[in-house]
Design goal:
- It is built from 13 helices and 14 strands.
- The protein is an alpha+beta fold.
- It folds into three domains: 112 residues, PAS domain (Beta-Lactamase); 72 residues, Helix Hairpins, CATH 1.10.287; 165 residues, 2-Layer Sandwich (Heat Shock Protein 90).
- Strands 7, 8, 9, 10, 11, 12, 13 and 14 form an eight-stranded mixed sheet that branches.
- α7 runs parallel beside α12 and α10 packs antiparallel against α12.
- The chain is globular, with a radius of gyration of 30 Å.
- The structure holds adenosine-5'-diphosphate.
C-alpha cells in the first residue's frame, strides 16, 4: 500500500452534512427580492403580476406594491441614445410582449416616473406556463457604456497616434526601394519589399480600427444629401480603375433601369436613380467592396459594377470573377474581424473589418448589404438604398440649398457684431461662407480599359447561388 493509500485509509470518512429540505419557492423569492437587476412578470394582458424592488426603483415607484396591477405600457417609457422618445408604435419591448416573442436590446434609455433617465439592457422572455406570462428584466448599463466609451476612445487614440510613425516607416521604405533614391542589392530589396508590404498592412489595420471606433462614436453624425446615384457611383468607382489596371482586370460599368438589364452585356443606357446618402459613407462602402473585388480576383479577371432602380430602391452591385466564398463562410463575412481562412486567402492581406464597416455604414443610411457567391467562380455584393423620386430629389435639393444659404448667412459677421476696430472678440472672423459640398471632389479618371464583356451575374438568386447578409 502506498503512502497516499495509507493516509486515505486512516482518514475518517465525513458524513454528508444534513441539509434542510429546500423550499424552492422561498429561494426563488429571495433571489428576485435581492438582485440588483430589475425583474417584472406580466400576464397575457400586460398587467404587472410581480415586480421586484430593483425594478420598482428603476421605473420610479417607491414600493413594488404601487406598480403591481398597472399596465406595463404605462411604466415602460424609453428614449433612444439621442434623447428621442420611442413612441409606443415603435417600442420594440411592447412589440415583443404583444407578439409573445423574446427580445433584448442595449439601445434603450429608461425614463422613469420622475423623468429621470437610465441606460438599461432590457430583455423580454415569454414563459412556458401556458398562460401567456412574460418576464421583463432590466440591467443598469451606465457603467458598462462608460467603460466601452473609454475603450473605444483608447483604441481610437492609439490607432491614430500609431498611424503617423507607420506612415513614415512606409514612406522611408518606399524611398529605399526607389532606384532613383537609393542603391540596394537584390537581397536587401527582397527584405525591404517584405517590410514595405507589412508596413502597408499595418497602416490599413490602423485605418480600419479607426473606422470601427468611429462607427461606435456618437459624435459622428450622418450628413444625408440627395444625390444621383449612377453618376456618383461611377465617379467613386472610377477612382479605383488604375488599381484594377495593375491586375489587368476588365472593368465594366453599366447602369440599367429595373430588371431590364442585358445581363453579361457591355454598356447599357444610363438611367438616373436618386437617393439620399452620406457621400463619405457611400464612398467608404464602394471603396471597400471594390478593393475586395480587386484583392480576391486573380489577374485577367473581371469586375462589373451596375446601378439600377425599381419603384422604391436603388440597387448597386459589385460583381467579380474572383475566388468566390464558400456557403459556410458566406454566413459570417459581415462579422467584425471575420476572415476566410483557406489556401487562397492566406496569402492575401486583410483585417476582416472591411465588410463589417460596409454593413454598419449601409444600415446607418437605411440601406442593406448582402452577398451572393459561387465558390471558385465569383461573388456579387449588393447595396440597396431607399430610392427618391425625381420630384422628391428636386425638393430636397432645394431644401439643402436653402439650409446652406442660411448657414452661410449665419457664419457672416453682422455689422453690429463687429467692434469698431473691425475685430471679433474671441472668435476668428469667418470671411468665407461654409457650405457642405453635395459631393466631395473625387479624381475622375478615364477607365484604363474600354468596357468589356461583363462577368455573368445572377440578378436573382438561382439554384447553387448562396446568399448572405
Ligand atoms: P478583409 O480585410 O479580410 O478583406 P473584409 O471584411 O473586407 O476583410 O472581408 C471579409 C472576408 O470576406 C475576407 O477575408 C474574404 O475572405 C472574403 N471576401 C470579401 N470580399 C470578397 C470577394 N469579393 N471575393 C471573395 N472573398 C471575399
Amino acid at each position: 500500500m502506498g503512502i497516499f493509500d495509507k493516509l486515505k485509509a486512516a482518514t475518517p470518512k465525513k458524513k454528508p452534512a444534513q441539509v434542510a429540505p429546500v423550499d424552492r419557492m422561498a429561494l426563488a423569492n429571495m433571489i428576485v427580492e435581492s438582485i440588483t437587476d430589475g425583474v417584472i412578470i406580466v400576464d397575457a394582458g400586460n398587467s404587472v403580476q410581480m415586480i421586484n424592488p430593483a425594478a420598482a426603483a428603476m421605473v420610479g415607484y417607491a414600493t413594488p406594491d404601487m406598480a403591481t396591477g398597472v399596465n406595463v405600457a404605462g411604466i415602460l417609457r424609453f428614449e433612444n441614445g439621442e434623447g428621442v422618445k420611442i413612441e409606443d408604435s415603435s417600442n420594440e419591448v411592447l412589440g415583443a410582449l404583444a407578439r409573445n416573442e423574446s427580445f433584448s436590446t442595449r439601445n434603450y434609455v429608461l425614463v422613469n416616473a420622475q423623468n429621470q433617465r437610465k441606460a438599461v439592457a432590457v430583455t423580454v422572455t415569454p414563459t412556458k406556463t401556458g398562460h401567456g406570462e412574460k418576464v421583463i428584466t432590466f440591467r443598469d448599463i451606465a457603467k458598462e457604456l462608460e467603460q466601452e466609451g473609454e475603450q473605444t476612445e483608447f483604441i481610437s487614440t492609439a490607432s491614430h497616434e500609431m498611424r503617423t510613425p507607420v506612415a513614415s516607416i512606409e514612406g522611408y521604405l518606399g524611398l529605399a526601394l526607389n532606384p532613383q533614391c537609393a542603391t540596394i542589392d537584390d537581397r536587401a530589396r527582397k527584405y525591404l519589399d517584405e517590410a514595405h508590404a507589412s508596413s502597408q498592412h499595418l497602416g490599413r489595420l490602423f485605418k480600419d480600427l479607426l473606422d470601427v471606433t468611429k462607427l461606435d462614436d456618437k459624435k459622428v453624425r450622418l450628413h444625408m444629401v440627395p444625390v444621383e446615384m449612377v453618376d456618383l457611383v461611377k465617379q467613386i468607382v472610377d477612382g479605383q480603375v488604375p488599381a484594377m489596371g495593375e491586375k489587368r482586370l476588365k472593368y465594366t460599368f453599366g447602369s440599367t433601369n429595373g430588371m431590364n438589364t442585358s445581363e453579361g452585356g457591355g454598356r447599357t443606357i444610363a438611367q438616373s436613380a436618386y437617393s439620399l446618402v452620406d457621400v463619405d459613407f457611400l464612398r467608404e462602402i464602394l471603396n471597400n467592396l471594390i478593393e475586395n473585388a480587386i484583392k480576391y480576383t486573380k489577374e485577367n479577371g473581371a469586375i462589373w459594377v451596375n446601378v439600377r432602380g425599381d419603384s422604391d430602391r436603388v440597387l448597386v452591385n459589385v460583381t467579380d470573377t474572383g475566388i468566390g466564398i464558400s456557403p459556410d463562410d458566406l454566413k459570417h463575412i459581415f462579422q467584425k474581424f471575420y476572415r476566410v481562412d483557406n489556401s487562397q486567402t492566406r496569402e492575401i492581406g486583410g483585417t476582416g473589418l472591411g465588410l463589417y464597416i460596409v454593413k454598419m455604414r449601409a444600415e446607418a443610411m437605411g440601406g442593406k448589404v448582402w452577398a451572393e457567391s459561387s465558390f471558385g467562380e465569383g461573388s456579387t455584393f449588393y447595396l440597396s438604398l431607399p430610392r427618391l423620386t425625381f420630384e422628391e430629389y428636386e425638393r430636397r435639393k432645394q431644401i439643402q440649398a436653402n439650409t446652406e444659404m442660411m448657414t452661410a448667412a449665419q457664419q457672416q459677421p453682422t455689422a453690429s457684431a463687429i467692434p469698431s476696430n473691425g475685430m471679433m472678440a474671441g472668435a476668428p472672423v469667418q470671411s468665407q461662407a461654409i457650405s457642405q459640398p453635395v459631393m466631395a471632389p473625387q479624381p475622375v479618371q478615364q477607365p484604363a480599359m474600354q468596357p468589356q464583356v461583363a462577368p455573368t451575374v445572377a440578378t436573382n438568386p438561382t439554384a447553387g447561388t448562396i446568399i448572405s447578409s
